Amino acid sequence: MEISILQQIIYSVSPNKIPNSHFKRILNIPLWRKRIIAFLITLWVLCLLLFWKNNYIEIVNPKNWFIDKSFNWIEVFISIITFLGFSFLSYKII
Fold this sequence. Notes:
Elements (H helix, E strand, L loop, with lengths): L1 H11 L18 H23 L19 H21 L1
Helix pairs in contact: 2-3
């Protein structure tokens, strides 16, 4: 009984006013945000598969950088998305 009364009091107060509370609110994520997150995860998985399948790790190696070779923006885009996904994932894990 006491816990439910305490929860009602805490839920009526802004979460910023009680940052060290053990009672956490359930956040409702809007549909548009869920769709953006799903799209970004799908894009990252697709870039990860293309990165691995096409051996794009070679363009990250400075030994393979040549001035006379044509620049492929798709390889760079896939590499950047792949590494940004790994960075975000490691940030969330740690």
